[in-house]
Amino acid sequence: MIIAVPLCTIFLTIGFWVLFNGIRLCIQAHETKRWEPSTGEITESLMEISRDSEGDDLYEAKIIFAYSFNNKTYHGKKIFFGYSPTKDKQNNESLIDYFPVGKQVTVYTNRARPDESVLIPGIQRFTLTKVWLGIFIAFWGLWFFVMWYLFGMPAVFKSIRFG
To answer: Edge-to-edge strand order for the sheet containing 104-109?
Structure first.
């Protein structure tokens, strides 16, 4: 039972770290809805395949686009905030089909940093994954703590009143 406290601490720390980063990412994604729309063009659209630590294929749509903002040309590659390689080949192929080379697109540009842009503004379902993962991990840390408190805590600690 002595391992319960470090285990709780590890789960809670990792869970809240992932949750914090997920919320930060969602805030950034939400801010893109207020970014300045401009016209751009897809200059490169291809699938990159890599492997994860378990040897499974990871697919990533590499979409590069050119756009003009304040009479200056920029190049971007961010599809949306939170996008990263996945095992889902079909969704990545759909992105490549939707953004073929030469297609005229609307690019959403950060007025404060014109080199920062996205093709799809707002919070996407994929962006919320980190938030839910953080909640899930933190929940297990809290669950381990409650179980330790109820069933495994030494009697000397049970005499201490919390709150």
So the answer is: 72-76, 57-69, 36-51, 104-109, 117-118
